[in-house]
């Protein structure tokens, strides 16, 4: 599921630019749908989260897009999707941050910025899901994920 989600996200991010859809909207929608669809099918939601984050970053890089924005928008989508299906938003947040850190290491991005972008998107989405989601996501923010201290960074997209 991870490679399928990654390939789908990468392709959609590239295609979004060609058809005039904003990368933020594409990342959010793909990520949310990946989580809700995988949950509906009883699949590996955390694997879908990892693949979607990786694919969004690769797609943004392929098109010269805003990579940190793609991370944030994807995290926003996966957390919003998890909230809609009653999933564990803390686990989804931690997984999105971990995936962002992993792809950052592979591609030379700043790992703190990548983790912070994911944290920002996750927290924004949690605010739309509810107070318990905010508490769960806030518990991940400030922790250490994969050796990186997670802190919220600025966010450039307002629709969660």
List the helices and strands and how they pair.
Layout: H1 2-19, H2 23-40, H3 45-62, H4 67-84, H5 89-107, H6 111-129, H7 131-140, E1 144-145, E2 148-149
Antiparallel strand pairs: 1-2
Helix pairs in contact: 1-2, 1-3, 2-3, 2-4, 3-4, 3-5, 4-5, 4-6, 5-6, 5-7, 6-7
Can you describe what's shown?
With 160 residues, the protein is mainly alpha-helical. Helix content is 75%, strand content 2%. The chain contains 7 helices and 2 strands. The protein has helices at residues 2-19, 23-40, 45-62, 67-84, 89-107, 111-129, 131-140, and strands at 144-145, 148-149. Strands 1-2 form a two-stranded antiparallel sheet. A hairpin with a 2-residue loop joins strand 1 (144-145) and strand 2 (148-149). Helix 2 packs antiparallel against helix 3 (45-62) and helix 5 (89-107) runs antiparallel to helix 6 (111-129). 56% of the residues are buried. The model is unreliable at 155-160 (pLDDT under 50).
